[in-house]
Amino acid sequence: VVMNKGDWDGLLGNTIRENLACDCDFLPQSEPLYTLVNVTPATFTNIFKVHRNLILYNIDPQVTSPGVVLKADLWARPQCVVMVNAIDAESANQLTLDNMPRILSYLEQAERDRVINNARRYEEHTLRPVVDEMTGGHLAVPSGYKLKKSTPDFIWLAYETTYVYQDIFVYKYPATQQPDEFSLENLVGYRNSMLQANVPGMFDNTYMTTSTFAQPRVTYIKYKGREFAELRGLWEVTNDFMGGPFVSHSFYSKDGEDVIVLEAFVYAPRFDKRHYLRQVESLLYSFEWNEDPEKK
């Protein structure tokens, strides 16, 4: 964040911190949404210009076109640049508040696109037909992911190191086509049922489920022509001490007969989890329906 020290320590800096460094939702411990570093205009040299996310404040009485401008790949690639032009700190603060949803969306999409582009570049192509057969669509899953489990209605794709799991579930169940199909209660109920049947813990009578420590949240999203219910919360293992964050996308199959669920979860007991979750969650957004061969 490029702005003068006085503004960073004042109201404008507080506005930035309250919106961009607030606690990230549904993590087991407190972690900021973004990690912020302040650089003054005088010290904003080439070494900082190649950073992937920049917010630049141009506060000057001579500014003739106040506003917020979003730019991509200004000094590096890929790069996300937010430029705020204002005549004084007070108007800069108001511009920031008025445009915060737009700024957050831009930053989030940029981070997501970086992950998806890398996943497509280094895709583990052996996993594509597995997801394809169940869903009629495909995910961009990068190399390093392995097929841990595959049944007609449940797939487990695992990227697991000694201390960090960044895994993906793909599963489906019959749709009811009722108005409450994607209600919080139904999504959590089906999730718990599928995970109890398919994701055992390390010991007898242990299995993954949805934590009741914090009530999950459902959000209805439209993204690139697809509509889905995003369920975000914490998972745990019944009768054990494992747990962490998860995010799932639930939507109808093309024929409407099934509900398809794409789920990302993280287990990283020794580390902060925001970055790991953001990485694997981004892969869910890479889902695309396969083309109809008759339309080719």
Strand content: 25-35%
Radius of gyration: 22 Å
Average pLDDT confidence is 95
* Tally of contiguous helical segments: 7
Helix-strand sequence: HHHEEEHHEEEEHEEEEEHE
- SSE-based structural type: alpha+beta
What is the molecular shape?
elongated
Let me know the largest β-sheet: 8 strands, antiparallel
Number of strands: 13
pLDDT < 50 runs, ≥5 residues: none
What report would you give on this structure?
The chain has 296 residues and is of the alpha+beta class. The chain has seven helices and 13 strands. It has helices spanning 5-8, 11-20, 46-49, 89-121, 128-135, 184-198, 274-284; strands at residues 53-59, 67-72, 80-86, 137-138, 146-151, 154-158, 165-174, 208-210, 217-223, 226-237, 243-252, 258-267, 288-289. The strands form three sheets. Strands 5, 6, 7, 8, 9, 10, 11 and 12 form an eight-stranded antiparallel sheet that branches. It has a three-stranded mixed sheet with strand order 1-3-2. It has a two-stranded antiparallel sheet with strand order 4-13. α2 runs parallel beside α4 and α4 crosses α7 (274-284). The protein is elongated and about 65 Å long. The mean pLDDT is 95.
Question: Features of this protein?
Answer:
alpha+beta, three-stranded mixed sheet, 7 helices
